[in-house]
Predict the structure.
Amino acid sequence: MFDALRPRISSIIESNNDPKTIMQKICDLLKSEVPHYDWVGFYFKNGDKRELNLGPYAGEPTDHTTIPFGKGICGQVAESNQNFVVPDVKAQDNYIACSITVKAEIVVPLFVNGENIGQIDIDSNTPNPFTEEDESFLEFVNEEVAKIL
Ligand code: SME
């Protein structure tokens, strides 16, 4: 599945100019093509502030359009610069619930010139669905997006 999606990600990047349009198309593609991706979105650091703002996303609207560094899975990744895979969100103390249907989450940081400027965030309604395949695929997605930011 991910091997078939990689060229489609590259093709979106090659055939569009506007970063927001590109990220929106990627969110829509991932949500519709990956069965265990139920919410897909990008968050970005807000200038010099220690907070993240929601960017393009696909899925239900969320109240959490601004997340302080350190808060929730997203806020922790803003500080750790590392992938965060959560097989069971109920087992996390520092977690911001967006929907009661969500069982698991993965957040992968997005680097531009070595700086962690944002992240891709996936929520899943399936328990424990994420593997290293998801991590390497989402790292690829972020590397592609970084080229146009
Ligand atoms: N669950 C995230 C918040 C963002 S929503 O999933 C869209 C977190 O704990 O940071």
Summary: The two ends are 26 Å apart (CA to CA). The chain has a mean pLDDT of 97. The first helix runs from residue 2 to 14.
